[in-house]
């Protein structure tokens, strides 16, 4: 059974890409077969994985645009457990072409569900904003994780994604899409304000917020600069411990 998880929030810089990367690597360290899909024209996940998105000839763009292109022609593998569908700057064009040329938004869903490869988890990184790329990810996904920073605009981000979830459920061919959880990120345990906001969010959305909060930890931001994810770069750091705890919660 493959779980397809999208990580989305209309707000930028909330830790979506970092979450996809670290979750993916921790899941693989537990023996899970993982496919990471980069749907962001910024292609940060692809860069974090060590690729130059300007040099790739095929990316998730090809999957969205050309039905004859199969997953295997696009996928890059890392050892036996991790694979990546890279992103590219073309995705910005894809977003426009998909609307103009009325490409079916369910194509990613079909590709991921009809592949002969078996993955335990597919993790989809989405761009900030809620455009057709994010919608394609939500149509493809079984479950959604929404990372949020614990401040008040965070609530607006949640509201926007909740609206989209209900549209995707009712009119876009994915009635079973579930919110897997809201993930507090950049959490500053010394800030009384952050603690209060988190407590408020938990009260407002009971049972929908992960127990694990990802702390603000500069090591997390340093890791990509040496070509690593924090779980490999500094396994004992607070950030790495939190991502392992998150995987415990996901697998429980
Ligand atoms: N827990 C953390 N502590 C400190 N820095 C972090 C943490 N998580 C992510 N960062 C850093 O913050 C920046 C934004 O994170 P990330 O790219 O994961 O966010 P994003 O939501 O994917 O952004 P975008 O909306 O632009 O795609 C990156 O430089 C990342 O390394
Ligand atoms: Mg990102």
Task: Please sum up the structure shown.
This protein has 252 residues and is of the alpha/beta class. Helices cover 44% and strands 15% of the residues. The mean pLDDT is 92.
Question: What are the key terms here?
Answer:
12 helices; binds adenosine-5'-triphosphate; single chain; alpha/beta; 252 residues; binds magnesium ion; globular; Rossmann fold
Tell how many strands the DSSP assignment holds.
7
Averaged pLDDT: 92
Named once each, the bound ligands are: adenosine-5'-triphosphate, magnesium ion
**Structural class of the secondary structure composition?**
alpha/beta
Query: Tell me, what's the shape?
Result: globular
Major sheet: 7 strands, mixed
CATH architecture annotation: 3-Layer(aba) Sandwich
Order of adjacent strands in the largest pleated sheet:
3-4-2-5-1-6-7
Q: What is the count of structural domains?
A: 1
Q: What is the H/E string?
A: EHEHHHEEHHEHEHEHHHH
- Percent strand equals 5-15%
Task: Report how far apart the termini are.
Answer: 16 Å
CATH topology: Rossmann fold
CATH class: Alpha Beta
Instruction: Please tally the helical runs, counting DSSP H or I stretches of 4 or more residues.
Output: 12
Q: Stretches where pLDDT falls below 50 for ≥5 residues?
A: none
- The percent of residues in helical segments reads 40-55%
Name the CATH superfamily classification: P-loop containing nucleotide triphosphate hydrolases
Q: What is the alpha-carbon Rg in Å?
A: 17 Å
